[in-house]
Amino acid sequence: MKSGSLRWVGLLVSVAALLWVTAPVGAQTKDVYIGFAQCALNAPYYVAMERAATETAQRLGAKITILNSDNDVAKQIDQINNLLVQGINGLIVNSDTEYGTEPIIKQVTAQGIPVVAIDRNLYGDYIAYVGIDQWKAGVLQGQYISQKLLPSGGNIVLLEGDPGDPANIGRMNGMLSVINQGANKGKYTILGQYAAFYNQSQGLAKMEQAIAAYGKKIQLVYAANDAMGLGALQALQEAKMTNVMICSVDGQKEAYQEILKGGQYKSSIVNNSWDITRIAVRVLDNYLTKAMTPAQTLEQIKQDDPALGETAYMQGDKDIITGTVLVSADNVKKFYNPNSVF
Predict the structure, then answer these.
(1) Which residues pair with 93 in a beta bridge?
(2) Where are the domains of the chain?
(3) Would you call 1 exposed, middle or buried from its count of C-beta atoms within 10 A (0-12, 13-18, 19+)?
(4) H helices of 87-125, where?
């Protein structure tokens, strides 16, 4: 080989080595395998998440396995361990309880596997949280109840989701922080508090119990999600208690339909499970394949899919907050889409 050819070979080797050294972690070509530890599939909200995760992963060319823990944190921990054994590259978690998954999340991150928290805030090391501001959702409903619906005070029944989970804690305590403080202190009575686990049939059953216990004392029902609110609506209508108002969270289209009627279903909060899941999968895939930060992915989404990123914003350097808009008769037409999945 001539000396000039040798110099060219040496130059090419040097350039290749430089590119290998400076390539961002995660940018190498490889198949992406995502695990999704889901807390439940007992409500339309979660079913929409499952479908959105599957479709988004397929579109990105990633493999995904979704496991449902049925609101059992021990089962969720076992499922995450199983996902680790299967060789996942990244993990999405909708955590069953506030602190219960923290030890297993530490194990996941210790193996260099990035974690994205979705819907419920996660305690532990994660690269991104995608979902609404749960506390703000409660505050917005507390303000609407105290300023518009029951300004003079009144009697309220609470329908909780999973009592120990971060979403329920934020939605309930955010609302209570408004009606129990300042000028509102002493004006409102919580007649009863029932765990209905975000499920419509449970919402119906628990509302029947509340009606049996408190009857016409009930003036308003605040539910931690729309599915429970819709179940409560059915129970109230069957009891001919059509003056009892209902407020809830999630923006399920069936709740919007009731708000449109101008009846006793008064408000909800935008929390589109389809959208947050699409964002979460993209955040994790971009991190794994392109070393992109959550902020960079959100900026990309806002450019190529403005409708998806319309209400999303960064809170800090890793939390992507979506929705968290109060929907009432005043603005429901803007958000209602009869063809939406959720």
Answers:
(1) 37, 117
(2) 33-132+273-323, 134-269
(3) exposed
(4) 102-110
Task: Give the model's confidence band at 193: pLDDT under 50 very low, under 70 low, under 90 confident, else very high.
Answer: very high
Q: How many other β-carbons are positioned within 10 Å of the β-carbon of residue 338? A: 7
Task: Determine the Cα–Cα distance for residues 320 and 316; give it in Å rounded to an integer.
Answer: 9
pLDDT of 47 higher than 60 = yes
- Written out in words, the top-level CATH class of the domain with range 33-132+273-323 is alpha beta
- The stretches of the chain forming alpha helices (DSSP H) are 3-22, 44-60, 73-86, 102-110, 134-144, 166-179, 200-214, 226-238, 253-261, 273-290, 294-304, 306-309, 332-335
* pLDDT tier, 1 (very low <50, low <70, confident <90, very high otherwise): very low
Fold equal for 33-132+273-323 and 134-269 = yes
Separation CA 209–CA 228 (nearest Å): 14
Residue with tokens 């199983």: 82
Both structure tokens of 117? 């928290």
Instruction: Give the span between the Cα atoms of 315 and 26, in whole angstroms.
Output: 24
The answer to whether 227 and 40 are in contact (CB under 8 A) is no
| Residue partners of 241: CB distance under 8 A and separation at least 6 | 211, 216, 218
Is the model's pLDDT at 18 over the cut of 60? no
Cα–Cα distance, 187 to 180 (Å, whole number): 8
Q: Quote the mean pLDDT of the chain.
A: 90
What is the pTM for the complete model shown? 0.84
Residue type, 339: N
Among 251, 221, 224, 249, smallest CA distance to 233 is for: 221
Fold of 134-269: Rossmann fold (3.40.50)
Closest of 162, 144, 284 to residue 220, by C-alpha: 144
Q: Of 34, 32, 41, 35, which is closest to residue 273 (Cα–Cα)?
A: 41
CA distances from 247 to 150, 163, 225 (A): 12, 18, 9
Q: Which pLDDT tens digit goes with each residue over 70-113? A: 999 999 999 999 999 999 999 999 998 878 899 999 999 999 99
